[in-house]
Amino acid sequence: LQKLLQLLQATDDPLIQEQALITLSNSAAFSVNQDIVRNLGGLPVIGAMLSDSTPKVKEKALNALNNLSMNMENQEEIQVYIIQVCRSIESAPLNSEVQLAGLRLLTNLSVTSDYHHQMTDSIPSFLHLLSEGTERTQIQALKVLVNLSANPAMTRHLLRAQV
Fold first, then answer.
1. What number of other Cβ atoms are within 10 A of residue 53's Cβ?
2. Superfamily in which the 1-79 domain is placed by CATH
3. How is residue 95 annotated by DSSP?
4. CA 134, CA 147: separation in Å to the nearest integer?
5. What is d(CA 79, CA 110) in angstroms, rounded to the nearest whole number?
6. Which residues are in the Armadillo repeat-containing domain (predicted)?
7. Which of 111, 135, 141, 158 is the most exposed place for a label (fewest CB within 10 A)?
8. Mean pLDDT on 153-161
């Protein structure tokens, strides 16, 4: 895992970055690896890939963070990317893999109400995806909205959202 993270930092080749992110994402299926990646300082390394202009690299980084977000310690570090993820969802082409990967990550991060306040400004975008997206996009947007709706503090934001 350490070598993969070093490789990710050392290369600008999108194909190598994509493969390294896929491997990290697959490794994160095991909870012990989630801790190892965090302890190696890997979350910011992967998070930096969210700024990549290559959609496939961005998608694979979102998938890796999604898999790594299955524990609370990782969520505490990953939450710093919520606003960036929301912007990526809003700027990505409708129904794109980047959009879906971002929504999946937000679904995990919105299971508890700890980070809901960071998603407030994107509620209109989630509602837009619910009305305009394909079924896959609608389901992912709905999952985020359902998680947000479980928090009474979000009621006002959800009801006042301009669609």
1. 7
2. Leucine-rich Repeat Variant (1.25.10.10)
3. T
4. 20
5. 10
6. 1-163
7. 135
8. 94
Report the amino acid identity of residue 138. Answer: Q
CA distance linking residue 83 with residue 90, whole number of Å: 11
Instruction: List, as one string, the DSSP characters of 14-55.
Output: HHHHHHHHHHHHHHTTSHHHHHHHHHTTHHHHHHHGGG-S-H
CB atoms inside a 10 Å sphere around CB 95: 15
What average pLDDT does the chain have?
Answer: 97
Residues 145 and 148: their CA atoms lie apart, in Å, by: 5
- Give Cβ neighbours of residue 107 (< 8 Å, ≥ 6 apart): 140, 143, 144, 147
Label residue 163 by pLDDT band (50, 70, 90).
Answer: confident
